[in-house]
Amino acid sequence: MTVPVDPEVFDQIMASLDAPMVVVTATVDDERAGCLIGFHAQGSIHPRRYAIWLSKANHTFRVALLGDHLAVHFLTQDDHDLAALFGENSGDDIDKFAQCEWAPSEEGPPLLLRCPNRLVLRRTGLFDEGGDHLCFVAEPVVATGTGPFTPLRLSDVGDLEPGHPVDERPSPATTRASD
Ligand SMILES: Cc1cc2nc3c(=O)[nH]c(=O)nc-3n(C[C@H](O)[C@H](O)[C@H](O)COP(=O)(O)O)c2cc1C
Asked: Is residue 55 lining ligand 1, measured as CB closer than 6 Å?
């Protein structure tokens, strides 16, 4: 018989990892989206692959599903204000890009000019096991950086309240027929 996982132990292990924080951006047609995330990782070396997990409650999730590229901006210790802008507000309510400097990438997703350490990704796969986040697997097509940097970490943004609580229901367009 499988012993159920103690969620507190699981959460404590995850908190100890102290994930680096990034802002993911996406676009489709004239619509831009972006949010702060902690769920992201390299997933393969040959070929190089990067995976990100987006909450089905988020505006960014809906735009990312329709687009074929994403940009991932690696935040540094100087970027708490950007983390707050993209993590505490929703594109459902405000235009976050009116409050920061950005430029379109050749591939589409907006690039945050404050964040020189970034990847542009082309989506290669999606994985949805029916949970609250969906996994986007992607190939890096552009990588720019300034050399080693100290990331902004989960423990640096404990004061932030997500703009969309994860237990919000997804939009009807992404709700499974069986729900
Ligand atoms: C510390 C922190 C970590 C977060 N991690 C994720 C994450 O891994 N994936 C995600 O989809 N949202 C994550 N969020 C939530 C979104 O950043 C937040 O709900 C945002 O307001 C959504 O914006 P949008 O509706 O414009 O996409 C996180 C928020 C915070 C404060």
From this structure: yes
89 close to ligand 1 (CB < 6 Angstrom): yes
Q: What span, in angstroms and rounded, lies between the C-alpha atoms of 13 and 31?
A: 37
Strand partners, 28: 31
Q: How far apart are CA 43 and CA 30, in angstroms?
A: 31
pLDDT 10s digits, 79-120? 999 999 999 999 999 999 999 999 999 999 999 999 999 999
127 CB-contact burial (10 Å; exposed 0-12 / middle 13-18 / buried 19+): exposed
Query: What is the reported pTM?
Result: 0.94
Mutate to test the pocket of ligand 1, among 24, 37, 72 (most ligand atoms within 8 A of CB): 37
What structural domains does the chain harbor? 21-154 (2.30.110.10)
